[in-house]
């Protein structure tokens, strides 16, 4: 049996987000760490800490101060183990007319769709967030 660690991570974040939890623990993999760092860089997540002893990542979710609404509206897996999706830089789709972020695994690491287009890099379309 194979496990899809990316889908597991996205589901954990989505569930914690729905319950308005402040933090969520995610199993550590290089891919998960890279994706979560992109989320932090784009402002969807507040903070990330790797816990060496338990081999997990502690993710602190971000909520608006006044309304207590989450910064994450939707989180979606695109490329799945049964159907991998790849795209060239020029053919990369926009998420929500540029308001969302597409996370792409490239030869230069895990980047956003804008960074990949800027560097003219294609790759596997991992997930989208808005």
TrEMBL record:
GO cellular component terms attached to this protein's record: chloroplast; ribonucleoprotein complex; ribosome
Any one GO MF annotation of this record: structural constituent of ribosome
UniProt signal peptide: none
Protein name (Swiss-Prot/TrEMBL): Small ribosomal subunit protein uS8c
HAMAP family membership: Ribosomal_uS8_B
InterPro entries the UniProt entry points to: Ribosomal_uS8, Ribosomal_uS8_CS, Ribosomal_uS8_sf
Residues passing through the membrane, by range: none
Gene3D superfamilies (UniProt xref): 3.30.1370.30, 3.30.1490.10
Similarity-based family: Belongs to the universal ribosomal protein uS8 family.
Domain of life: Eukaryota
One Pfam family in the UniProt entry: Ribosomal_S8
Subcellular location per the Swiss-Prot or TrEMBL entry: Plastid, Chloroplast
Keyword Oxidoreductase: no
Keyword rRNA-binding: yes
Gene Ontology terms: biological process: translation
Subunit note: Part of the 30S ribosomal subunit.
Keywords, alphabetical: Chloroplast, Plastid, Ribonucleoprotein, Ribosomal protein, RNA-binding, rRNA-binding
Biological role: One of the primary rRNA binding proteins, it binds directly to 16S rRNA central domain where it helps coordinate assembly of the platform of the 30S subunit.
